[in-house]
Design brief:
Layout lengths: L2 H27 L5 H24 L3 H15 L2 H13 L3 H26 L1
Helix pairs in contact: 1-2, 1-3, 2-3, 2-4, 4-5
Length: about 120
């Protein structure tokens, strides 16, 4: 199957799952704290670790990686890709690079939101 189609199908499933998890958390615990987003990010990172190890152990499949890692997890949370990339850098002994990546990602993410809000207003 075409990689773009696999990613699109996986992304749709991941986005629906994210919406369901966030909505359930808000209905259960209220909306005063973004618990749903926190849970989605944590769960997405956990599942990304499982998927990465599983793909590694079974012999990486481009189709499965496209569907699961890029599509489903990308639609569910891109924070999972951030987690996998950060730990891969650390595992490869590039701890300083991993720390710079974490700090830069946080600064750029928050800065991007602030800039976008300011420009839109």
């Amino acid at each position: 199957m075409n990689a773009a189609l696999l990613i699109a199908l996986g992304g749709a499933l991941g986005a629906l799952a994210r919406y369901g998890c966030v909505t359930l958390a808000e209905r259960t615990f209220g909306g005063g704290f973004p618990l749903g987003t926190l849970l989605v990010n944590a769960l997405g990172c956990f599942v990304a670790g499982l998927v990465a190890a599983w793909l590694e152990a079974r012999g990486d499949s481009a189709e499965l990686r496209a569907f699961l890692a890029v599509g489903v997890l990308g639609g569910f949370t891109t924070f999972s890709a951030f987690g996998v990339d950060t730990l891969a850098l650390a595992r490869d002994g590039r701890t300083l690079v991993a720390c710079v990546y974490v700090a830069t990602s946080l600064a750029c993410g928050l800065g991007g939101v602030a800039l976008g809000l300011r420009l839109a207003r």
